Amino acid sequence: MSFYEKFSEVKNLPFEDLFQAVSSRDVEKVLQKERLTEDDYFILLSPIAEEYLEEMAQKAHRLTIQHFGKTMQLYLPLYLSDYCVNICKYCSFSFNNDFPRRRLTMSEIDKESQIIAEMGIKHIILLSGESKQHSSVDYLKESLEILKKYFSSISIEIQPLDQVEYEELFKQGIDGLTVYQEVYNEEIYRDIHVAGPKKDFIYRLDTPERGARAGIRSINIGALLGMDAWRKESFITGLHASYLQNNYLESEVGVSFPRMRPHAGSFQPKVNVSDKNLVQALLATRLFLPRAGINISTRETPEFRDHIIPLGVTKMSAASSTVVGGYSEPDVTQSQFEISDDRSVDEIKTLLRRKGYQPVVKDWQLI
Amino acid sequence: MEDVLTLGGKVLKNRLFVGTGKFADHKQMGEALEASNSEVVTVALRRVDMEEQEEDILHDIPKEMTLMPNTSGARNADEAVRIARLAKACGMGNWIKIEVISDHKYLLPDNEETTRATEILANEGFVVLPYMSPDLMAAKRMRDAGAAAIMPLGAPIGSNKGIRMKEMIQIMIDEMDLPIVVDAGIGKPSEAAEAMEMGADAVLVNTAIATASDPVQMARAFDYAVRAGRIGYLSGLGPVSATANASSPLTGFLG
């Protein structure tokens, strides 16, 4: 079983023509429905549905409050290592980018953890470049012994692993897995991932399934918006999330909407995804998957993040550093991408309260 | 004689149980809990933060309420058991609402795993309140496993759809000798009253209060509704006839 089978059924559809063929009447009908089909989701991503963003937003807001309440989960990223064996056109950690690489020692992990914990954050996501040698399962297991002292939920966003490796990490306390497909277009995928194990489109596509089979509690996926036509990319991302939700009932599925940001390489986004476009993708996803977690990172500007809080978002990061060792030694090395929102955890908490949301720092317990 | 509900060794005068999720802030939650007059409150252990006492959810729960920690997040019996033990170790008492959910699309409870967890925890001395999909046989198994009460869902959790499982719950109320607490799906005070009129021993409400425009007033409304429904039930509701009573009976000639 693999999402690749489903993906193969839809990947060659004439998306442009099908999106253009959607009518206002189609959108209106979908907005009356309680449970949406894949076709309904497609309709909400069409150009004509842009005229219904306010109605979509009202409904998305209602559904989110109903299922998640007036709450927002806060978390922080912790970068462990920027060693990477892949050459990717769009990423600052790419193997061929020359900069002093670094991997945190156990005492450095302890130091970073202390600083994050002092901000009152209990949920973290561990990130690394993709290198089985540097961010190895053994290294992660050793790190977990320290991290578990400080945090109640620990996720990973590292190189894709085999199922047995996820099983080992789950046993040691990893409860979340984030893996972005980056782009659901095999041709573009092969073009931007020039060399390295990441070139294997299908192994990456199957990663969430290997994680879910290993028992990992929460699975988070996403497409890097800007790599290909966003309506199609969002549609396939939603199908992927829905497929995971239907086939791996024990895992909570979340969707992120990372948008390309400026970075050290010369590669620039192929498609300009406007704020309006991103909002449409987010709202359509919320209406299609009312119980999916939706995550917005500090790649987005403070103003934009403030506005989209009520539109279906359930998780936010704050005060993020995308630099290895960046909490204890700011500005020492190269970040993976530039963050746009550098507000502190307290500032984000104040903002959320002002908007009538309870900031939630702990929503899991290592058991 | 005063109408009370005896559960887990406690004598409860109020039959509204309340939840603590989904509130905009803890202060408002505390006020709503006060206004509800409820004596039993459920808290997800996953949200409890023993290290941040001031900001912790327990801080704003009125001290006189009985805590009923729940195992939200558990996907099987073993996880539920581990969460229950942690709750006890955190000093949250020995009541436990078992929630085992292995379906993240609709969040429907897994009756089989719930029964398994009930047995383990009842044997350890917990007052076990299993949250379940209404099913008489499963309820009997949970009773035999040591449950103190049974908590069938009225409709999928958070759906605010009311008592959609009415017939199944009515059968459980009629056939079970344990308290039946209707949990989940109740969206309006009138639906809480409806559950009480059916003969439910209590109801548990969370989303409908927490996500109301005015949670404090809504908590009060639920308190009244639950009392009204209970009094209605105790007073003996008039029989409901499916057909009108004919004014010229066909069998009148029989005298």
Number of strands of chain B: 10
Class derived from helix and strand content of chain B: alpha/beta
How much helix is in the residues of chain A?
A: 40-55%
Low-confidence stretches of chain B: none
Stated plainly, the CATH topology of chain A is called TIM Barrel
Q: Would you list the SSEs of chain A in sequence order as H and E?
A: HHHHHEEHEHEHEHEHHEHEHEHEHE
Number of helices of chain B: 8
Mass-distribution shape of chain B: globular
Number of distinct beta strands of chain A:
11
Main sheet of chain A? 8 strands, parallel, barrel
What strand order characterises the main sheet of chain B? 5-4-3-10-9
CATH-defined topology of chain B: TIM Barrel
Q: How much of the residues of chain A is beta strand, in percent?
A: 15-25%
CATH hierarchy class name of chain B = Alpha Beta
Query: So, CATH architecture of chain A?
Result: Alpha-Beta Barrel
* Total domain modules of chain B: 1
Summarize the largest interface: chains and residue counts: A-B, 30 and 30 residues
Gyration radius of chain B, in Å: 19 Å
**Oligomeric state of the chains in view:** heterodimer
SS-derived structural category of chain A: alpha/beta
Overview of the structural elements:
The complex is a heterodimer of chains A (367) and B (255). Chain A has a single domain (3-360), classed as TIM Barrel, CATH 3.20.20. In chain A, 41% of the residues lie in helices and 16% in strands. Chain A is built from 15 helices and 11 strands. In chain A, α1 runs antiparallel to α12 (230-247). The longest helix of chain A has 18 residues, at 230-247. The model of chain A has no long low-confidence stretch (mean pLDDT 92). By secondary structure, chain B is α/β, with parallel strands linked by helices. Chain B has one domain: Aldolase class I (TIM Barrel, Alpha-Beta Barrel), CATH 3.20.20.70. In chain B, the strands form 3 sheets. Chain B has a 5-stranded parallel β-sheet. A 3-stranded parallel β-sheet of chain B has the order 6-7-8. The interface between A and B is medium-sized, with 30 and 30 residues. Chain B: The active site is at residue 97. Chain B: Keywords: Cytoplasm, Schiff base, Thiamine biosynthesis, Transferase. Chain B: This is Thiazole synthase.
